[in-house]
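Session log. Operator J.P. requested a structure for one protein chain; no other inputs attached. Running the standard single-chain path with token output.
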Amino acid sequence: MTVRQRHACFTTEDYLEIERISSIKHEYLMGQLVAMAGTVRPM
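Structure written below.
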């Protein structure tokens, strides 16, 4: 049996707002946010 998961689809505006407040960096790929390995925002 295959389980399909639904993920939220973000707009570019959503992505930019999330990046502004997030402590980690993400990549924006076709409406999805993917956490970038080994990156954190400077404090």
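Operator note: Residues 1-43 form one domain.
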